[in-house]
From TrEMBL, chains A, B:
The keyword Transmembrane does not apply. The keyword Transferase does not apply. It holds the Pfam family HxlR. This is HxlR family transcriptional regulator.
Length: 95, 95
């Protein structure tokens, strides 16, 4: 979700928080730190008062986000087939 | 891992067990059942004595496995960049 939101362009913390409705502040901070630590996200601090922090996908992050987006698109595309398979399995688990 | 192994072709339970060294019987059984339930794997039971069970990727499973393989290849390709980013972050966590 964070990667998808940042794929649309750089975001300030508050913008991300609004876009990722329901995410706790703690989870968002941890997620951003992990993405930053893994080199997927760049963190820019503007010397305003108070300082303004912007997050942006790095090239590495963008290529990772592309893979994740492909997987998300795949799961949306085949959601129906998977649900049909699950329903069939649940009625005849061990034929 | 199971998907990768089945990408190479149909496998009997024992063959999978040998290929996935270290996986517990319980975990393998649960993994195969989940993959089967989600329609990614087809389970064939040959009427031998004792019955011989073979597992095979479905078309759905093959297309899913392709995405996963892409993600695995990506992580292998960028392993060094990620480790460099982590090392840099760990020395200067909050510049």
């Amino acid at each position: 979700m964070t990667l998808a939101e940042l794929s649309a362009g750089p975001r300030r913390y508050r913008e991300l928080e609004r876009a990722l409705e329901g995410i706790s502040q703690r989870m968002m901070t941890l997620t951003l730190r992990r993405l930053e630590r893994d080199g997927h996200v760049l963190r820019h601090v503007a010397p305003t008062v108070p300082p303004s922090v912007t997050y942006e996908l790095s090239d590495l992050g963008r290529s990772f986000a592309d893979h994740i987006a492909g997987l998300v698109a795949w799961s949306r595309r085949y959601k129906w087939e998977i649900e049909m398979a699950q329903a069939a399995y649940d009625t005849h688990p061990e034929i």
